[in-house]
Here is the input.
Amino acid sequence: MLAWAGVPGRRAIKDVGKVEYPQRLSALRKAKGLTQAQLCEELGIKVNAYREWEMGRRRPELESLIMLAEYYGVSMDYLLGLEHVTLAASQAGDPLADLSDEARQSVYEFIEFVRQRDKKK
Here is the structure.
């Protein structure tokens, strides 16, 4: 077994991304409003291979991980579940940086709602 076995707080390399990368791939794709077929056509990926990645049956090759990370503007660590903050959010210091405009607007509206509610107290 490779790296980190027995080191507290670390997982063996074979366990990296076992749970989270399929969910991350799916969520990132859906956030862009793309179907699997649309994404694959845009990036030149075989649909069957990508489908297997999202289902967690296969793992993307390194080149594919790099391409996906660049396409989505996230780190490979984020894709693999090693980071929980996207690259855009961490670089901008803005926890909302990786949200869609619609999602950001919803957050701002909620903040305004809370401010108005607190003024009434």
User: Anything to note?
Assistant: The chain has a mean pLDDT of 77. The chain has two domains: 1-84, 95-121.
